[in-house]
Amino acid sequence: TIEVFKNGTLNSEKLLKGAKEFFPEELWSNLSSICKSDLNDACNCLLTMSWTPTVMISLRAAEDSIRRFYKFKVGKSTQRMGWKNIIDELEKINNINKSIIGYIDYIREVRNQAEHPDQVFDQMEAERVFHQVINVIHVINQEMSLKRPLNEFSINELKCILETKNLSSSGKKADLIKRLEDSIKKDSKKT
Fold first, then answer.
1. What is the tens place of the pLDDT at every residue in 16-52?
2. What is the Cα–Cα distance from 24 to 141, expressed in whole angstroms?
3. Is 94 exposed, middle or buried (0-12, 13-18, 19+ CB in 10 A)?
4. pTM of this structure
5. 86 touches 63 (CB < 8 A)
6. What span, in angstroms and rounded, lies between the C-alpha atoms of 188 and 113?
7. How far is the C-alpha of 189 from the C-alpha of 191, rounded, in Å?
8. What span, in angstroms and rounded, lies between the C-alpha atoms of 30 and 167?
9. Which of 23, 57, 32 is nearest to 43 (CA)?
């Protein structure tokens, strides 16, 4: 018999429905298939009370989002860069939210701890890491969101938005182009 998760800080009913229950639909639809798969696997690990695998799989999802965030901010792939190098490069960017860098670095430290073969996590730690990963994904995606004023975006960020955002509907793409044109007109009137 397999014991199933019931009591904890997380709602087992939400876990049964999958990781999408922890995200607004628009954010969930913008996550990569790898991130979604890892988060769903983490939910399954929690449900089967597999605490250490929960942490490991959750951190994989965080890494995917952090690498996408780097590409968004810098305009280049992370290729084989380690988290520390990613953080060091992100810190060099002028228009970056420094608290996001601190949060990513904290998640990196948890990941480093988790990599040790003798490290075992208990339920409380696994749930906490799962919460933190969900939160860092929310924070990163909020930073990448189109809801920010356009003049706060760099050229690399705008290119990345046009390439990777779910702009399949011509209305969304047209809205973004209109907002860009309006922003350019507004800026040109100031100068």
1. 999 999 999 989 988 999 999 999 999 999 999 999 9
2. 11
3. exposed
4. 0.78
5. no
6. 50
7. 6
8. 10
9. 57
Higher-pLDDT residue of 117, 153: 117
CA distance 180 to 124: 45
**Residues 133, 57 contacting (CB under 8 angstroms):** no
Q: What pLDDT, on a 0 to 100 scale, did the predictor assign at position 183?
A: 67
The string of pLDDT tens digits covering residues 102-152 is: 999 999 999 999 999 999 999 999 999 999 999 999 999 888 876 555 666
Q: Rounded to 5 degrees, what are φ and ψ at 183?
A: -65, -40
Q: Which two tokens stand for residue 155?
A: 């050229």
- Per-residue pLDDT at 1 exceeds 60: no
DSSP alpha helix (H) spans, the chain = 12-17, 25-30, 33-47, 51-74, 83-91, 98-114, 123-143, 155-164, 170-190
- Contact, 4 vs 48, CB < 8 A? yes
Confirm if 86 and 68 have CB atoms less than 8 A apart: no
Tell me if 65 sits within 8 A of 140, measured CB to CB. yes
166 token code pair: 């779910």
